[in-house]
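User: Please fill in residues for this 261-position structure.
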C-alpha cells in the first residue's frame, strides 16, 4: 500500500492529491460543502484509487472512498482529468456523511430494502449536484464533469438503476447481512429483465437522455413481447409517451422534446 498524504479531512494516495485539493478548494464557495467538510473531519476518511470499482464507492467498514483509478484519463488537460475524480469524490463524500448516521437494519424483505437504499442514493445524487452548481463559477471543470443524470421522478430512476445492475449490489448486501441467501430480488419492471433485453433497454434510456426521438423510435421498433412491454412501461414511468403524442409530461423535464410537433 502506498504512503498516504493528509489533505484537509482526508488521507489520500499521492496520485489523488490534485482531485482532493480541488475539492478542498471549494471551501468558502459553497455552504453545503463547508458543512459537509466539517462532518467529514469527524470521520477520518481515506481516499484511494481502485481498478475494481466503477466511478466510486464508499466502504463504510474501512471508512474508505475508492475512486476509479483510470476515470478521467481520456482527458488531455490534467485539470479536467483531476476534476472528473473530484466530481466522484463529492458524490461519495455525500454518501459517507449520510451513512455515518445510518443505523441500517435491513427492512423486512429484500424488495423494500433495495428500494430504500436506492432512494437514499437518489437523494444523495441530488445533494451532490446542488453542491456542484454552487461552485461552478469558481470550478467550471468540476461542474462540467457532472455526467450522472437522473430522472425527475424516483420510480424512473429506480428502474434505470435496476437495469444498470446497481440495485443487485444492494440485494446481494441484504442477503449477506441477513443470511437470507434464498431471497431473490425481483425489482419493479413489468417482467424481470433478462440479459438479452439489457442492451436494448439501455438504448431506450440513452435515447431519452440524449433527447433523440429518432433513436428512440428505432430501438422501440426492434422490440417485441415482454421486452417491448418493459420498454413501454419505462417510458410511461419516465413521462415519455411511446406514441410521442402531444401529451405533456409532468415528470421528465426533457420529455417535451419528444412530442410530435
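Assistant: Residues filled in for all 261 positions:
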Amino acid at each position: 500500500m502506498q504512503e498516504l498524504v493528509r489533505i484537509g479531512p482526508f488521507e489520500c494516495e499521492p496520485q489523488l492529491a490534485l482531485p482532493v485539493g480541488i475539492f478542498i478548494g471549494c471551501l468558502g464557495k459553497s455552504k453545503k460543502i463547508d458543512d459537509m467538510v466539517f462532518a467529514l473531519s469527524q470521520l477520518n476518511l481515506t481516499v484511494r484509487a481502485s481498478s475494481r470499482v466503477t466511478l466510486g464507492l464508499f466502504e463504510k467498514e474501512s471508512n474508505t472512498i475508492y475512486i476509479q483509478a483510470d476515470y478521467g484519463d481520456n482527458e488531455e488537460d490534467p485539470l479536467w482529468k483531476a476534476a472528473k475524480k473530484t466530481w466522484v469524490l463529492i458524490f461519495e463524500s455525500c454518501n459517507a456523511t449520510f451513512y455515518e448516521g445510518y443505523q441500517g437494519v435491513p427492512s423486512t424483505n429484500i424488495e423494500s430494502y433495495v428500494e430504500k437504499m436506492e432512494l437514499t442514493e437518489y437523494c444523495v445524487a441530488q445533494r451532490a449536484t446542488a453542491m456542484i452548481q454552487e461552485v461552478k463559477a469558481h470550478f467550471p471543470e468540476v461542474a462540467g464533469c457532472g455526467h450522472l443524470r437522473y430522472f425527475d421522478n424516483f420510480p424512473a430512476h429506480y428502474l434505470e438503476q435496476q437495469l444498470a445492475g446497481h440495485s443487485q449490489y444492494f440485494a446481494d448486501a441484504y442477503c449477506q447481512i441477513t443470511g437470507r441467501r434464498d431471497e431473490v430480488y425481483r425489482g419493479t419492471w413489468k417482467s424481470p429483465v433478462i440479459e438479452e433485453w439489457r442492451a436494448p433497454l439501455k438504448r431506450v434510456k440513452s435515447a431519452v437522455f440524449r433527447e433523440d426521438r429518432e433513436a428512440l423510435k428505432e430501438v422501440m421498433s426492434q422490440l417485441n413481447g415482454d421486452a417491448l412491454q418493459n420498454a413501454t412501461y419505462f417510458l410511461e414511468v419516465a413521462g415519455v409517451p411511446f406514441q410521442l403524442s402531444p401529451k405533456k409530461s409532468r415528470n421528465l423535464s426533457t420529455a417535451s422534446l419528444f412530442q410530435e410537433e
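For context: The chain has a mean pLDDT of 82.
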